[in-house]
Structures are given as C-alpha cells and as structure tokens.
Amino acid sequence: MHAYYADQFVLPLPEGHRFPMAKYRLLRDAVAAHLPGVVLQVAPPASDGELALAHTPAYIDAIAHGTLPAPAQREIGFPWSPAMAERARRSVGATLAACRVAMAGGEGTGIAGNLAGGTHHAYADKGSGFCVFNDMAVAARLMQDEHARAASAMGANPLALRVAIIDLDVHQGNGTARIFQGDDSVFTLSLHGARNFPFRKEAGDLDVELPDGCGDDDYLAALEQALDALDQRFAPGLVLYLAGADPHVGDRLGRLHISHDGLEARDRRVFDWAWQRRVPMAFAMAGGYGTDIADTIQAQLTTWRVAFQYQQRWQNSLQPSL
C-alpha cells in the first residue's frame, strides 16, 4: 500500500506555536517501523492548474508570492513563508497521488493514503484553521476530470464520477461543504462536535452534530446511522476519508470521549463500508492534537494498520484463482 509523505510537511514554526508539527515525522517513523508492507512515497507538489480546480487564481497567487494579508495569515494559523507555501502544495499533492493509486485498478490498489492532509477548513478563496488549500476538494474535482477524460479517450459517454467525502475529524469540514454546495456529484458527510470549531458551520449534504463528552457507543451508533443514510442517498465511485485522531478523549481540541478502541472500530466500519461496495478509497490524517502526542500517533498508526488490512483484501481479490 502506498503512503505519501514529504519532509516539507514539518514546517518550522515560531517557538510556542500550538500546532503539533512533529506528529508528521513521528507518524512516518511509526509506519516505517511497524508496517513494512506500506511503501513510503515522496509527495509531489500540486500544480497551479490542479489547485485551480477548487481555488481562485487570486488566492493561489497570494500563497505562491507571499502577498496574503496578515489577517488572512492569522485565520490560517501559520505565518506565510516559502516553506509554508511548499508544504501546502505537497499536502494536496499527496492526496492527489493517493487518489490516482487507489483509482488505478491495478495490482494491489484500491486504497492509498496521505500521512498528512485532510485540510477541510480551506475555502475556495481563503484558508482557515491550519488549512491552506483544500486537498479533498481538489482531489474530488481532479479525479472527476481524469475519469471523464479517460472515458472520452475510449469513446464512451462519460458519466460524472461520484465522490463521497466522509469527514470524521472532530471539527466540521466547513470549507469542503461550502465548495460543494449545489454539486450533486459530490456528497459531503461530516460527523463533528456541535460546540467545536468552526463555530459557524456550513451546510453539507449530511451533518451529524455530537454533544461534548460523546462516548464510543453513541459515536459509533451515529456513524452507523450516517453511513446508512449515505447508502440510501448516494452511490460513490470514490471515497475520500478524513480519519481525524481528534475525537480521542485525550485530544486537547476534541471535547469528545472516544477511546482508542472506539477510533479503531470507527476506522474498520468506514473501510469495510467502502470494501463491501468495492469503492476505491484515498484517506488523509486530518486533525490530531493530543495532550500526549503519543495518543495522536497511536490513533493514526491504527488507521494505517486497518487500511493496510483492507488493502490486502483488494490485492487478494485481484489475484486470479487457481
């Protein structure tokens, strides 16, 4: 299974900054140490043309050339620098590469992931909440374009690729929801804390709000109901999954009480849902702000372990029977 990572994910920040930037390197090292079947690949930077599928030219240019006003930088949460711009491009590029592998239909594909990404607070014309560009939005639009071009090249009349974005970060994917409002080819599902950031939510296709202190049983029941509703309303050809670690009880920004076992059960349910329908999936890590960073890494490593198990099912299903 392919995992996309770049050294640029670890952005130098001012001393005392609250974002746990070290988690990306720690997760990479944990995956390399514990999951030898996962192949680490260098994340490429997304191009201007790819970013323009979901972002305005003026915003792309402002990030590229450092002309973003100070208030806009504060809303993102990272000061602008060339390294910040490069990190943002590679975070998107990693998800695009994972999508291409998952959609390829060749040996061992079906699932691939980004060791960062899940930047769901970014809007078309601005960033927010530690998110510069919206990798999920760019990926959905790019995969739709590439699917249409491939169908046309074969002389077929292409139907739009339908993409389901299953966002289980503890914070609503407000930027993603806004970008796809009115787009029937993309379904946005978000399971998030009702009283958590963003405090002004956007209307997605299916928004499930959870109370502070929500525990495993209620969380998993809400997820099951949401997946049932998705089943009734939408049949995707690609799933994009944001496997946030921040619902964990030890997350300082989470406000929920989900255990490690609960997060593993969540991941298994989502990967199984896609597998049962033979829908390719690309996934990203999204949020994770553990009071103890080891809790974040444990939750994310478990996501990768579960993903690898389901990717093996894809691989085995593609092997010819004797």
Number of domains: 1
Q: In order across it, which strands form the biggest sheet?
A: 2-1-3-8-7-4-5-6
- Given the structure, what is the number of helices? 10
- CATH homologous superfamily classification: Histone deacetylase domain
Biggest pleated sheet: 8 strands, parallel
Structural class: alpha/beta
Rg result: 18 Å
**What CATH first level would be assigned?**
Alpha Beta
Short characterization:
The chain is of the alpha/beta class and 322 residues long. It has helices at residues 23-34, 48-51, 57-65, 70-76, 82-103, 135-153, 174-179, 216-233, 260-276, 293-318; strands at 2-5, 39-42, 111-114, 163-167, 186-193, 206-210, 238-242, 281-284. One of its GO terms (molecular function) is hydrolase activity.
Q: Your description of this structure?
A:
It holds the Pfam family Hist_deacetyl. One of its GO terms (molecular function) is histone deacetylase activity. InterPro entries: HDAC_classIV (IPR044150), HDACs (IPR000286), His_deacetylse_dom (IPR023801), His_deacetylse_dom_sf (IPR037138), Ureohydrolase_dom_sf (IPR023696). Residues 25-299 form the Histone deacetylase domain. Belongs to the histone deacetylase family. The protein is of the alpha/beta class. It has one domain (2-316): Arginase, Chain A (3-Layer(aba) Sandwich). Helix content is 43%, strand content 12%. The protein has 10 helices and 8 strands. The chain has helices at residues 23-34, 48-51, 57-65, 70-76, 82-103, 135-153, 174-179, 216-233, 260-276, 293-318; strands at 2-5, 39-42, 111-114, 163-167, 186-193, 206-210, 238-242, 281-284. An 8-stranded parallel beta sheet has the order 2-1-3-8-7-4-5-6, sandwiched between helices. α1 crosses α10. It is globular, with a radius of gyration of 18 Å. The two termini are 24 Å apart. The mean pLDDT is 95.
